[in-house]
């Protein structure tokens, strides 16, 4: 099933909340973009839940910013959208880090949230 505009809109909306909070170095706001039971895998050992997400982003340096591009989407159910992205994290004092990111957005009663987040850093 190819990407659709609706699926990209869902991902864009939730990822803009994520990006805005990352750019502002607001770990609790980043965590609020995730479900309570989200599986989170950044570039450190994985964690589960909003506390793990907040701790991960609290450890990131001030001035880190994220830019993303949605490459593919798939809708597995009315309330589940998978996204595969290119993401570049930039810093004030070091080279950027380019990663691939897979996310699973899940619709809950009050909107869309990230239920799964998996970063891969591919060798260049």
From TrEMBL:
Give the Pfam families listed for this entry. Answer: SnoaL_4 (PF13577)
List membrane-spanning regions: none
Where the record annotates domain SnoaL-like, the positions are: 5-60
Q: Which InterPro entries match?
A: NTF2-like_dom_sf (IPR032710), SnoaL-like (IPR037401), Steroid_delta5-4_isomerase (IPR011944)
Q: What's the protein called, per UniProt? A: SgcJ/EcaC family oxidoreductase
Species, as recorded: Streptomyces nigra
């Amino acid at each position: 099933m190819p990407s659709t505009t609706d699926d990209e809109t869902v991902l864009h909306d939730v990822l803009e909340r994520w990006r805005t909070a990352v750019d502002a170095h607001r770990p609790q706001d980043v965590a609020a973009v995730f479900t309570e039971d989200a599986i989170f895998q950044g570039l450190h050992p994985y964690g589960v839940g909003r506390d793990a997400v907040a701790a991960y982003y609290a450890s990131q340096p001030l001035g880190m910013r994220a830019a993303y591009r949605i490459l593919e989407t798939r809708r597995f159910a009315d309330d589940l959208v998978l996204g595969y992205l290119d993401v570049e994290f930039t810093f004030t004092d070091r080279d950027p880090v380019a990663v691939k990111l897979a996310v699973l957005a899940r619709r809950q009663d009050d909107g869309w949230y990230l239920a799964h987040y998996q970063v891969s850093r591919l060798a260049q």
